[in-house]
Every structure is written in structure tokens, then in C-alpha cells.
Amino acid sequence: MLSLRDFDVVGRTYRNINRYRQILTILFKYGFGNIIEALNIDQYLEIGLKMISRSKPAKIERLSQPQRTRLLFEELGPTFIKFGQVLSTRPDLIPLKFIFELEKLQDDVPQFPFAEVQKILVKEFGDKKNPFVSMEENPFASASIGQVHLARLKTGEKVAVKIQRPGLRKLIQVDLEIMNHLATLMERHIEDLSFFRPVKIVEEFAETLDKEMDYTLEASNMERVAQQFLFDSTIHIPKVYLDRTTEIVLTMEYIQGIKISDLTALDAAGMDLKALTRQGADLILRQVFEYGFFHADLHPGNLFVLPNNVLGPVDFGMMGFMDRRAREVFVDLIASVVTEKPSATCHYLLELTEYDEEPDMRFLERDISTFIGQYLTKALKH
Length: 382
Prior knowledge:
- The chain is of the alpha+beta class.
- It is built from 18 helices and 10 strands.
- Helix 10 packs antiparallel against helix 12.
- The radius of gyration is 23 Å and the shape is globular.
């Protein structure tokens, strides 16, 4: 179980300080030294910013801030790559120019060697119990948590085998402690960022990662969603092989499809884009409002189109929950916007929101009324 302990208490170990120094050096490298200096880190850590390289390569100077942010996450490794992927689905938190750049993190993640894969399989299944007759050395997908190899079972079926990165949990624990400390300093020293409650974001991210690193939970999620759409021929959830799945190895049905964002390939394959749009909306809305249990990471890299316009979502490590009351309030919220009732919208919005102190209702209602007036009558294409 991952835990966010107080960095000031446990974070002065050599291992953590070494990683902290590495993170700060990379932040300076990509031009984010102003943020680091604003946090007054020297006051809290025996690190000594003077010892940290602040040089920025000339080629970095020519890159945009979103590009530097993406490269920063890539160099910082799996924890930060995953954090960047989560941010790429949150236009409510960051500008679109960053969203478009961070979306590239969804596909371009470094692989780990096949020799490591073989060690993991031996450790999990043993030499003689290895359930795979063959496995391709090069993964066909590589993500921040693990990578996926095509394999064949002794029964002849083709399967996709997701294998977790070696030493991942240890690295993530250290990174999360450091992220938590940086978030605490942001809330303390940078007023513009404190509004976003960075500590709360890191805490939720840690909880999500903890679940995502247990592949038996992901297997359970897949089976649960498969049951929900058992009689829907437009949605296909890959079959899970539970007897060949452990906490760090997940074996599932291998499906071949076209990425939902590859419109050229979808057109060439004769897919019905309007039908796919309706099915995609139905997939999300049914999960949220009918079941209250939904795929929380449905970016383009996790949604494929199979023959006959069938949608195939993958990667069920990150799931969301919404209880019945929250679903009912959300529907009421939407209805109050559509019927142009800003006072009711305020009421439902606050019921769904966590806040430290109640806002000025008069100003909130005025802002909501302005928002409704601006956007409600616009055509969808705008």
C-alpha cells in the first residue's frame, strides 16, 4: 500500500535526497527554476540549490513551454509520465496547448528490456509453470506502469500480456513523497497554485496509482465492466485469463483495432463515424449514470475500433465511482443549466463540490448566469 508520509520526517534518507536533487536538476534544465526558487526549498531541505546544475541546453531554449513540460515528465520517469497522462485528460485544470502536448505521453514511453520480462515471468510462474508457449520480445504497447507483449498460450490462443515495470513500486513511493512535499510548498508559497489544492491532487493521484499497480484489481474491473455490457454487441471488453494473472502480470485476450483518434484509418476501413460517436457517448454515459462505475482514463490510446463498428476499450487500471445520490444531483445540475435556473445550478454545484468556505452566493450566481448565457445557445460545433 502506497502512503504519503511527511517528507520532513522520513524524507531525509540518502535515497530520497538523491532523487530530490535529480528532480530539481531536471526542473532547472527545462526552464522551471523560477517555480523552484519561489518554493524556498533551501529553507526546508538540506539539499543546497547552489550545488544543483541550473544550465539549460540551447535546444531547450527554442522549445515552447508545453513541449518543455512534456519532455520534463518523460525524463523524470514513470511516476511523472503517469501524472502527465492524467493531466492530459483534464482541460479544467490546464490550458489546451498543454493538453495537446501531454497527449503524446500516451504512446511514447521507453521500453524495458525483454530479459527483465523473462525474470518477472519466472518469478511469478516458475520455469515449469510458465503458461506461455511463446512471447514476442518487442512489446506492441509501452506505458508508464508496464508494457504489453503478444504471446501464445499452450491452448493456442493469442493473448496480450501486460507486465509491470521492475522496481516500480519502490520508485513511485519515493517520487510521491517528493511530489507531496513540493505540493505542500506550492500551497504555502504560490497563491495562484494553492487555489488548485495541489496536495489533494497528489493524494488522489497516489490512491489511484496504488490501485493501478495491482493487476488483479484491473482484472476484476474488466470482468465487472464486461458483465455490464454483456448483451451489447457494439462494445467488446477483452477476456481476462485469471489463472495467468498476478499482481504484476495481466493476461488478457489480444484484440486488434484502429485507434479511435485515427480518423484517416477509420475512413479507409469504412467505419461509420457517426455511429461510433453515438456508441462512445453511450459507453461513457451508461457507465457513469447507470452503473456509477466507469473507465476513468479513456484517452484515445485506450479506445480502439474493431470490425463492424465495435468499440474496444482497454486499460482498466484507473476506474471512477459515483454513488446514486451524486448521479441524481449531477442530472439535476444539467437540467438546471438547460432550463436556465442559475440559483438551482449554484445549489447543485455546491452539493457536488468540496470547498473550505462557502463562496459569496450572489457573485457565484451572477457568474453562472453569465456562463449559461454565453454557452447554452451556441451551436455544438462552436
